[in-house]
Design goal:
Elements lengths: L1 E4 L5 E7 L2 E6 L4 H19 L11 H16 L3 H15 L9 H12 L4 H20 L26 H10 L5 H10 L3 H5 L6 E2 L4 E4 L8 E4 L2 H8 L10 E2 L4 E2 L4 H11 L8 H12 L4 H8 L4 H7 L4 H10 L1 H4 L2 H24 L1
Antiparallel strand pairs: 1-2, 2-3, 4-5, 5-6, 7-8
């Protein structure tokens, strides 16, 4: 199959399939042209096997639900993970036929999603997408898996960047006014970016000081405690809509803060800081200030303590403060030093006595 620009600069495709020559000018983007060409080729193949319309009439969102009901819920204990992954996948591929989805479109999804979440999350969603397409093939609704040769992102397993108090203050000060409360809530609650941006006023219980998160990554609602500072930040915000972080142009909540966040990081001269690192920073601060790991696991919405421990990255300063607090266990520092000095004096006296004899 050949995808190219013609002499007028429009996108076109050209291929031979089952002895049939197909050439057409689409005039859209390269990706859309590739999708149309792929669907046309699959149509010719299906007709050659007497399978007219088998995959053409199946929308991705419809098959995604069938995959959940017929496979995930039946055979997988972790079916909620598939459901969550497909929720994001459907958001991108909705309205597209299975046969019209190409490798190029899958890679476009990868690139767009990487701007929103960590590469590990994108890899998880890609794995779910590949499995979904494989089932479509098994059930006779697709001939080839367009995601089969799409590579996962290489993961950087180096430690996440944890902000110290000075860096956090600098980041907030350098942020645009509309971004500042979002950053403060992230640092004070450990919530995910999507959870923060989609908050409604009805989710906040100011009397009992907690946030009720209904739509979570795990599929299970959870409560997040509000510190006095976080509570006051929320109270100070205007209320033009049911959404806390409202976009008057779209009449819904803010969908992305990527540009504003990158600008704030640049102004604050903080490199390599992902928005998700604010969640790691909260977890680290929480533990360094005497927090309980079991409680932290519930606040972050993790199913296991092992996952929570990955978010706790003790700093040198935090470890030093922890061991300094232990000084009080044995008594005052001056008393301990005096006791050790007395022991040293006794040893010197004994050594001198032995030498004189």
């Amino acid at each position: 199959m050949k995808i190219y620009r013609n002499e007028k600069g429009k996108w076109a495709y050209h291929f031979f399939c089952n002895g049939q020559r197909e050439r057409k000018v689409v005039g859209l983007s390269k990706a859309e042209c590739e999708a149309v060409a792929c669907e046309a080729r699959n149509k010719i193949k299906r007709e050659g096997f007497g399978l007219k319309g088998t995959a053409k009439n199946v929308f991705f969102e419809d098959f995604a639900q069938e995959f959940i009901d017929r496979y995930s819920k039946v055979y997988k204990r972790s079916w909620r993970s598939d459901e969550n992954s497909l929720k994001h996948l459907v958001g991108f591929f909705k309205g597209k036929y299975l046969a019209g989805i190409t490798r190029s479109l899958v890679e476009q999804y990868q690139a767009a999603r990487k701007e929103e979440v960590a590469p590990a999350t994108v890899n998880l969603e890609l794995a779910c997408l590949k499995k979904t397409f494989n089932k479509a093939i098994d059930w006779g609704k697709l001939e080839a898996n367009p995601a089969a040769k799409v590579k996962k992102f290489k993961l950087n397993n180096s430690r996440e960047k944890i902000l110290d108090a000075e860096e956090a203050r600098r980041l907030i000060e350098c942020a645009a006014p509309s971004l500042r409360p979002i950053l403060i809530i992230a640092l004070k609650t450990g919530m995910r970016r999507g959870e923060i941006l989609s908050l409604r006023w009805s989710d906040i219980n100011f009397i009992k000081s907690f946030i009720q998160i209904k739509d979570t990554k795990s599929g299970e609602p959870r409560k997040v405690p509000l510190s006095p500072a976080a509570r006051e930040v929320l109270k100070a915000l205007p209320r033009p809509s049911e959404f806390i972080f409202y976009n008057p142009e779209t009449k819904t909540h803010i969908k992305s803060v990527v540009t504003a966040y990158e600008t704030a990081c640049a102004r604050a001269e903080i490199k390599g800081l992902r928005f998700h690192d604010l969640r790691h920073t909260f977890a680290t601060w929480y533990m360094e200030n005497g927090g309980d790991v079991v409680a932290l696991s519930k606040i972050l919405g993790h199913h296991s303590l092992q996952m929570t421990l990955r978010y706790c990255n003790p700093t040198e300063g935090g470890m030093l403060r922890a061991v300094e607090k232990m000084d009080g266990i044995l008594g005052a520092k001056e008393d301990i030093v005096a006791d050790i000095s007395a022991i040293g004096e006794v040893r010197v006296a004994v050594s001198q006595s032995l030498l004189s004899n």
